Amino acid sequence: MEYRRLGRSGLNISKLALGTMNFGNPTDKAEAFDIINTALDAGINILDCADVYAEGQSERIIGEALAECGKRQDVFVTSKVFLPTGSGPNEVGNSKHHIISACESSLKRLKTDWIDIYFLHRTDFNVPQEESLAALDLLVQKGKVRYTGCSTHPPWRVVEAWWTADKHHYPKFICEQPPYNLLDRRVEQEIVPMCKAYDMGLISWSPLAQGVLAGRYQDAAAIPSGSRGAFKEIYAERITQAGIEVAQQLAKRAADKGCSLPQLALAWVLSQPGITASIIGPRTLAHLEDLLPAADLSLDETDLAFCDQLVKPGAFVSDHFNTAGWQY
User: What domains are there in the chain, each with its CATH number?
Assistant: First the structure.
Protein backbone atom coordinates (compact mmCIF):
# COMPACT_ATOMS: atom_id res chain seq x y z
CA MET A 1 0.00 0.00 0.00
CA GLU A 2 1.27 3.45 -0.89
CA TYR A 3 1.04 6.18 1.76
CA ARG A 4 0.71 9.82 0.84
CA ARG A 5 1.27 13.03 2.79
CA LEU A 6 -2.03 14.60 3.86
CA GLY A 7 -1.35 18.26 3.23
CA ARG A 8 0.46 20.36 5.80
CA SER A 9 -0.54 17.96 8.59
CA GLY A 10 2.37 15.73 7.64
CA LEU A 11 0.22 12.65 8.28
CA ASN A 12 0.88 9.73 5.96
CA ILE A 13 -2.36 8.04 4.95
CA SER A 14 -3.06 5.11 2.67
CA LYS A 15 -4.21 6.15 -0.78
CA LEU A 16 -7.30 4.00 -0.24
CA ALA A 17 -9.55 5.13 2.61
CA LEU A 18 -12.22 2.76 3.89
CA GLY A 19 -15.65 4.38 3.76
CA THR A 20 -18.12 3.01 6.30
CA MET A 21 -21.42 4.51 5.16
CA ASN A 22 -22.87 1.03 4.50
CA PHE A 23 -21.99 -0.36 7.93
CA GLY A 24 -25.17 -1.07 9.88
CA ASN A 25 -27.37 -0.64 6.81
CA PRO A 26 -27.17 -2.65 4.60
CA THR A 27 -23.92 -4.30 5.78
CA ASP A 28 -24.39 -6.21 9.03
CA LYS A 29 -21.89 -6.03 11.89
CA ALA A 30 -20.22 -9.38 11.23
CA GLU A 31 -19.40 -8.58 7.62
CA ALA A 32 -18.41 -5.02 8.54
CA PHE A 33 -15.89 -6.47 11.01
CA ASP A 34 -14.49 -8.69 8.24
CA ILE A 35 -14.22 -5.70 5.90
CA ILE A 36 -12.41 -3.58 8.51
CA ASN A 37 -9.96 -6.32 9.42
CA THR A 38 -9.22 -7.15 5.78
CA ALA A 39 -8.71 -3.47 4.97
CA LEU A 40 -6.31 -3.01 7.88
CA ASP A 41 -4.39 -6.15 6.89
CA ALA A 42 -4.08 -4.70 3.37
CA GLY A 43 -2.46 -1.55 4.77
CA ILE A 44 -5.42 0.83 4.80
CA ASN A 45 -4.96 3.12 7.81
CA ILE A 46 -7.86 5.57 7.58
CA LEU A 47 -11.56 4.89 8.24
CA ASP A 48 -14.02 7.48 6.99
CA CYS A 49 -17.29 7.92 8.88
CA ALA A 50 -19.99 10.44 9.84
CA ASP A 51 -22.41 10.74 12.72
CA VAL A 52 -25.44 10.25 10.46
CA TYR A 53 -24.30 7.07 8.71
CA ALA A 54 -26.91 4.39 9.50
CA GLU A 55 -28.17 6.68 12.28
CA GLY A 56 -24.97 6.24 14.27
CA GLN A 57 -24.58 2.50 13.70
CA SER A 58 -21.54 2.94 11.47
CA GLU A 59 -19.67 4.70 14.27
CA ARG A 60 -20.70 2.04 16.78
CA ILE A 61 -19.42 -0.73 14.52
CA ILE A 62 -16.07 1.02 14.03
CA GLY A 63 -15.72 1.48 17.77
CA GLU A 64 -16.47 -2.16 18.52
CA ALA A 65 -14.25 -3.47 15.71
CA LEU A 66 -11.21 -1.43 16.76
CA ALA A 67 -11.74 -2.34 20.42
CA GLU A 68 -11.83 -6.01 19.47
CA CYS A 69 -8.73 -5.97 17.25
CA GLY A 70 -6.80 -3.54 19.45
CA LYS A 71 -5.56 -1.40 16.56
CA ARG A 72 -7.02 2.00 17.47
CA GLN A 73 -3.56 3.57 17.75
CA ASP A 74 -2.67 2.39 14.24
CA VAL A 75 -5.74 3.84 12.51
CA PHE A 76 -6.93 7.34 11.66
CA VAL A 77 -10.64 7.55 12.45
CA THR A 78 -12.66 10.39 10.96
CA SER A 79 -16.19 11.59 11.51
CA LYS A 80 -18.35 14.48 10.37
CA VAL A 81 -20.92 16.95 11.70
CA PHE A 82 -23.61 19.09 10.06
CA LEU A 83 -26.56 16.93 9.02
CA PRO A 84 -29.55 16.51 11.38
CA THR A 85 -28.99 14.14 14.30
CA GLY A 86 -32.46 14.64 15.77
CA SER A 87 -35.72 16.52 15.33
CA GLY A 88 -34.78 19.54 17.44
CA PRO A 89 -34.08 22.93 15.85
CA ASN A 90 -30.49 22.94 17.16
CA GLU A 91 -29.62 19.34 16.26
CA VAL A 92 -28.32 20.33 12.84
CA GLY A 93 -25.76 22.64 11.27
CA ASN A 94 -22.41 24.06 12.27
CA SER A 95 -23.28 26.06 15.36
CA LYS A 96 -20.92 25.77 18.31
CA HIS A 97 -23.71 24.05 20.24
CA HIS A 98 -24.29 21.36 17.64
CA ILE A 99 -20.63 20.74 16.79
CA ILE A 100 -19.65 20.14 20.41
CA SER A 101 -22.72 18.08 21.22
CA ALA A 102 -22.39 15.96 18.08
CA CYS A 103 -18.68 15.38 18.71
CA GLU A 104 -19.35 14.14 22.26
CA SER A 105 -21.94 11.70 20.91
CA SER A 106 -19.60 10.47 18.17
CA LEU A 107 -16.81 9.84 20.68
CA LYS A 108 -19.12 7.67 22.77
CA ARG A 109 -20.26 5.64 19.77
CA LEU A 110 -16.70 5.26 18.50
CA LYS A 111 -15.49 4.17 21.95
CA THR A 112 -12.50 6.48 21.67
CA ASP A 113 -11.06 9.53 23.40
CA TRP A 114 -10.30 11.39 20.18
CA ILE A 115 -11.29 11.74 16.54
CA ASP A 116 -8.28 12.04 14.24
CA ILE A 117 -9.92 14.24 11.59
CA TYR A 118 -13.26 15.92 12.28
CA PHE A 119 -14.98 17.22 9.17
CA LEU A 120 -17.67 19.83 8.67
CA HIS A 121 -19.86 17.61 6.50
CA ARG A 122 -21.20 20.57 4.56
CA THR A 123 -20.83 24.31 4.86
CA ASP A 124 -23.47 26.17 6.88
CA PHE A 125 -24.44 29.49 5.32
CA ASN A 126 -26.57 30.35 8.38
CA VAL A 127 -23.64 30.33 10.81
CA PRO A 128 -20.62 32.66 10.70
CA GLN A 129 -17.44 30.68 10.17
CA GLU A 130 -15.90 32.21 13.30
CA GLU A 131 -18.56 30.35 15.31
CA SER A 132 -17.85 26.97 13.71
CA LEU A 133 -14.08 27.34 13.82
CA ALA A 134 -14.17 28.43 17.48
CA ALA A 135 -16.02 25.21 18.31
CA LEU A 136 -13.47 23.11 16.45
CA ASP A 137 -10.66 25.00 18.19
CA LEU A 138 -12.16 24.16 21.58
CA LEU A 139 -12.39 20.47 20.68
CA VAL A 140 -8.76 20.46 19.55
CA GLN A 141 -7.63 22.20 22.74
CA LYS A 142 -9.43 19.57 24.81
CA GLY A 143 -7.76 16.77 22.85
CA LYS A 144 -11.05 15.41 21.54
CA VAL A 145 -10.16 16.26 17.93
CA ARG A 146 -6.66 16.25 16.47
CA TYR A 147 -7.21 17.73 12.99
CA THR A 148 -10.09 19.42 11.19
CA GLY A 149 -11.30 19.20 7.62
CA CYS A 150 -14.19 20.12 5.37
CA SER A 151 -16.32 18.10 2.99
CA THR A 152 -17.95 19.27 -0.26
CA HIS A 153 -17.40 22.95 0.52
CA PRO A 154 -17.34 25.70 -2.11
CA PRO A 155 -13.75 26.81 -2.65
CA TRP A 156 -14.38 30.40 -1.59
CA ARG A 157 -15.73 29.22 1.78
CA VAL A 158 -12.65 27.08 2.37
CA VAL A 159 -10.35 30.01 1.66
CA GLU A 160 -12.48 32.26 3.87
CA ALA A 161 -12.22 29.67 6.65
CA TRP A 162 -8.46 29.55 6.23
CA TRP A 163 -8.09 33.31 6.56
CA THR A 164 -10.51 33.38 9.49
CA ALA A 165 -8.54 30.65 11.25
CA ASP A 166 -5.31 32.51 10.57
CA LYS A 167 -6.74 35.71 12.05
CA HIS A 168 -8.00 34.05 15.25
CA HIS A 169 -5.26 31.39 15.54
CA TYR A 170 -7.76 28.57 15.12
CA PRO A 171 -6.74 25.21 13.60
CA LYS A 172 -6.79 25.30 9.80
CA PHE A 173 -8.48 22.65 7.69
CA ILE A 174 -5.92 20.06 6.61
CA CYS A 175 -8.01 18.60 3.79
CA GLU A 176 -11.13 18.88 1.68
CA GLN A 177 -13.31 15.89 0.84
CA PRO A 178 -15.22 16.40 -2.43
CA PRO A 179 -16.87 13.98 -4.85
CA TYR A 180 -14.55 13.03 -7.71
CA ASN A 181 -14.85 10.42 -10.42
CA LEU A 182 -14.60 10.20 -14.18
CA LEU A 183 -18.25 11.24 -14.54
CA ASP A 184 -17.85 14.42 -12.48
CA ARG A 185 -14.48 16.14 -12.90
CA ARG A 186 -15.44 19.64 -11.75
CA VAL A 187 -13.05 19.56 -8.77
CA GLU A 188 -10.29 20.04 -11.32
CA GLN A 189 -11.52 23.58 -11.99
CA GLU A 190 -10.98 25.20 -8.57
CA ILE A 191 -10.88 22.69 -5.70
CA VAL A 192 -7.73 20.84 -6.76
CA PRO A 193 -5.81 24.08 -7.49
CA MET A 194 -6.99 25.51 -4.15
CA CYS A 195 -5.77 22.45 -2.25
CA LYS A 196 -2.41 22.66 -3.98
CA ALA A 197 -2.07 26.39 -3.27
CA TYR A 198 -2.93 26.04 0.43
CA ASP A 199 -1.14 22.71 0.91
CA MET A 200 -4.35 20.88 1.78
CA GLY A 201 -4.88 17.18 1.34
CA LEU A 202 -7.67 15.97 -0.93
CA ILE A 203 -9.60 12.83 0.03
CA SER A 204 -12.25 12.24 -2.61
CA TRP A 205 -15.52 10.35 -2.30
CA SER A 206 -17.60 8.35 -4.80
CA PRO A 207 -14.78 7.19 -7.13
CA LEU A 208 -17.19 4.65 -8.66
CA ALA A 209 -19.87 7.28 -9.25
CA GLN A 210 -22.30 5.57 -6.90
CA GLY A 211 -21.92 2.25 -8.69
CA VAL A 212 -22.32 3.53 -12.24
CA LEU A 213 -18.58 2.96 -12.79
CA ALA A 214 -18.96 -0.50 -11.30
CA GLY A 215 -21.39 -1.46 -14.06
CA ARG A 216 -24.38 -1.75 -11.74
CA TYR A 217 -26.75 0.26 -13.95
CA GLN A 218 -27.65 -0.43 -17.56
CA ASP A 219 -30.53 1.97 -18.07
CA ALA A 220 -31.08 5.27 -16.27
CA ALA A 221 -34.82 4.83 -16.67
CA ALA A 222 -34.83 1.38 -15.04
CA ILE A 223 -32.97 1.62 -11.73
CA PRO A 224 -32.77 -1.81 -10.06
CA SER A 225 -34.58 -2.24 -6.77
CA GLY A 226 -32.23 -2.56 -3.81
CA SER A 227 -29.59 -0.36 -5.44
CA ARG A 228 -28.49 2.95 -3.92
CA GLY A 229 -30.18 4.72 -6.82
CA ALA A 230 -33.51 3.28 -5.66
CA PHE A 231 -32.92 4.40 -2.07
CA LYS A 232 -33.21 8.17 -2.42
CA GLU A 233 -34.14 10.61 -5.16
CA ILE A 234 -30.88 12.52 -4.71
CA TYR A 235 -29.01 9.31 -5.51
CA ALA A 236 -31.23 8.54 -8.48
CA GLU A 237 -30.45 11.99 -9.91
CA ARG A 238 -26.79 11.00 -10.27
CA ILE A 239 -27.59 8.08 -12.56
CA THR A 240 -27.67 9.40 -16.12
CA GLN A 241 -27.69 7.67 -19.46
CA ALA A 242 -24.61 9.64 -20.48
CA GLY A 243 -22.80 8.34 -17.40
CA ILE A 244 -23.84 4.77 -18.14
CA GLU A 245 -22.51 5.06 -21.70
CA VAL A 246 -19.16 6.30 -20.36
CA ALA A 247 -19.06 3.32 -17.99
CA GLN A 248 -19.69 0.93 -20.87
CA GLN A 249 -16.79 2.39 -22.85
CA LEU A 250 -14.53 2.29 -19.79
CA ALA A 251 -15.49 -1.37 -19.22
CA LYS A 252 -14.11 -2.23 -22.66
CA ARG A 253 -10.85 -0.49 -21.79
CA ALA A 254 -10.69 -2.38 -18.50
CA ALA A 255 -11.14 -5.69 -20.30
CA ASP A 256 -8.27 -4.81 -22.64
CA LYS A 257 -6.06 -4.07 -19.59
CA GLY A 258 -7.06 -7.29 -17.85
CA CYS A 259 -8.69 -5.59 -14.86
CA SER A 260 -12.23 -4.97 -13.67
CA LEU A 261 -14.22 -1.80 -14.44
CA PRO A 262 -14.27 -0.69 -10.76
CA GLN A 263 -10.50 -1.20 -10.51
CA LEU A 264 -9.85 0.98 -13.53
CA ALA A 265 -12.28 3.69 -12.39
CA LEU A 266 -10.64 3.83 -8.96
CA ALA A 267 -7.10 3.73 -10.34
CA TRP A 268 -7.99 6.68 -12.59
CA VAL A 269 -8.92 8.82 -9.57
CA LEU A 270 -5.77 7.80 -7.69
CA SER A 271 -3.63 8.78 -10.68
CA GLN A 272 -4.96 12.34 -10.84
CA PRO A 273 -2.82 15.30 -9.68
CA GLY A 274 -3.48 16.53 -6.15
CA ILE A 275 -5.37 13.45 -4.94
CA THR A 276 -4.16 12.18 -1.58
CA ALA A 277 -6.63 9.31 -1.21
CA SER A 278 -9.97 8.08 -2.45
CA ILE A 279 -12.73 6.64 -0.28
CA ILE A 280 -14.04 3.20 -1.18
CA GLY A 281 -17.32 2.14 0.41
CA PRO A 282 -17.76 -1.60 -0.08
CA ARG A 283 -21.04 -3.21 0.92
CA THR A 284 -19.50 -6.67 1.04
CA LEU A 285 -16.12 -8.24 1.65
CA ALA A 286 -16.11 -9.38 -1.98
CA HIS A 287 -16.49 -5.75 -3.11
CA LEU A 288 -13.47 -4.77 -1.02
CA GLU A 289 -11.37 -7.62 -2.32
CA ASP A 290 -12.16 -6.61 -5.91
CA LEU A 291 -11.13 -2.99 -5.26
CA LEU A 292 -7.85 -3.55 -3.40
CA PRO A 293 -5.81 -4.39 -6.56
CA ALA A 294 -6.58 -0.89 -7.88
CA ALA A 295 -3.97 0.44 -5.46
CA ASP A 296 -1.29 -1.26 -7.59
CA LEU A 297 -2.83 -0.60 -11.01
CA SER A 298 -0.81 1.78 -13.19
CA LEU A 299 -2.33 3.86 -15.98
CA ASP A 300 -0.20 5.02 -18.89
CA GLU A 301 -0.60 8.12 -21.03
CA THR A 302 -2.83 6.35 -23.53
CA ASP A 303 -5.19 5.25 -20.74
CA LEU A 304 -5.41 8.80 -19.40
CA ALA A 305 -5.96 10.24 -22.89
CA PHE A 306 -8.72 7.70 -23.48
CA CYS A 307 -10.47 8.81 -20.29
CA ASP A 308 -10.09 12.47 -21.24
CA GLN A 309 -11.90 11.70 -24.49
CA LEU A 310 -14.78 10.12 -22.58
CA VAL A 311 -15.22 13.11 -20.23
CA LYS A 312 -13.17 16.23 -20.81
CA PRO A 313 -11.08 17.61 -17.91
CA GLY A 314 -13.20 19.79 -15.63
CA ALA A 315 -16.46 18.58 -17.22
CA PHE A 316 -19.24 16.34 -15.92
CA VAL A 317 -21.99 14.03 -17.19
CA SER A 318 -23.38 13.22 -13.73
CA ASP A 319 -23.96 15.71 -10.91
CA HIS A 320 -22.35 14.47 -7.69
CA PHE A 321 -22.54 17.90 -6.07
CA ASN A 322 -26.34 17.68 -5.84
CA THR A 323 -26.20 17.38 -2.04
CA ALA A 324 -23.70 20.21 -1.62
CA GLY A 325 -26.22 22.94 -0.73
CA TRP A 326 -24.59 25.29 -3.23
CA GLN A 327 -24.40 25.47 -6.99
CA TYR A 328 -21.10 24.42 -8.50
Answer: 3-211+272-287 (3.20.20.100)
Residue 227: its pLDDT value, please?
Answer: 82
Residues listed for the chain: 328
In the chain, which residues have pLDDT < 70? none
The predicted pLDDT at position 155 comes to: 98
pLDDT in tens, 191-234: 999 999 999 999 999 999 999 999 999 988 888 887 888 778 89
Q: Which of 53, 118, 170, 180 is catalytic?
A: 53
Question: Pairing relation of β-strands 3-5 and 173-177?
Answer: unpaired
| 20 contacts 269 by C-beta, under 8 angstroms | no
273 touches 283 (CB < 8 A):
no
> Does the annotation count 328 as an active-site position?
no
- Contacts of residue 49, defined as CB under 8 A and 6 or more positions apart, other chains included, come to 20, 21, 58, 59, 62, 77, 78, 79, 80, 110
